[in-house]
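Q: Could you write out the predicted structure for this multi-component system? I'm mainly interested in how the pieces pack against one another.
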Amino acid sequence: MSKRIRKIILPNICINFTSVILIVSIGNIISGIQDHIVHGEGVRINGFCLFACELFVILGLVTVACTTLEKLRFKNKISYLVLELSINYVGFISGAYVFRWMKFSSKNMKETAVIMIITTVLYLNVYFITQKRRKREADEINRLLKKREKEHKREGV
Amino acid sequence: MQVEVHEKQNLEEAQVVIYCWEIDEKVRKVENFIKQLSVVINVVSDGRICRISADDILYIESVDRRTFFYTPDKIYESKEPLYQLENYLHGTGITRISKNCLLNIDRLKSIAPFTNHRFEATLVNGEKVLVSRNYIGDLKKKLEG
């Protein structure tokens, strides 16, 4: 379990977290949005820091949920991708609703669409990064297999 | 490496003796290969008990507490749990690839990434089995010798 947390869950959370923070920061810079201060009871909280913490919680929950998919058997890659992407959508939209990242109404369909696009981009980003990493591992094993096969042929085994 | 084969009528079973300057990687490989040929397992097929060589096995799978041995032409069954077989077959080409599967690496053709952080292993007969991410390191170590 600890190996799974160290090798799968934590790297996934870190990649997603960094990507979202970067996208949101760049978005804020481009649109000229100033960071706001949330006033608590005698406490001044930086709005962006609060968002970062909330995002970390949501990412953690979504990543753990996606990792548990490992226990299920899928017939093909498509069904797995669809289910994992659905978990991402539900997680992020619920997070946006609970933490009031935006108002949900028929008027702000545009913002909802933006969240969905960001989710899809993030998902595909992580998917292709991990896929590339696993491809490298598979190539290394295939190289060892070929080497072994050549040795067996040479030794006449 | 010189190879000689002599026939002797009074032997109960074939004997292999290796003479070498020193036990290097090659000698160790030959030794392991011969050991693998001599490792046999009692299995059940069509209600009859028979013995199969570890070298004939493609993979061993545990389903509902029953253990199945897959060879290129037949499926055998055994009551031995997977962890006991894993210990018994230690030193052969058979290694664990998931919680419920052992694979003979000498029958492995190639490997490719699959979903859920797993890998899909293609065997020499075209059959495919899934390799769990947790065991990919062990598989690599086994291939490296």
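A: Regarding packing and overall arrangement: Chain B touches chain A through 25 residues (CB under 8 Å).
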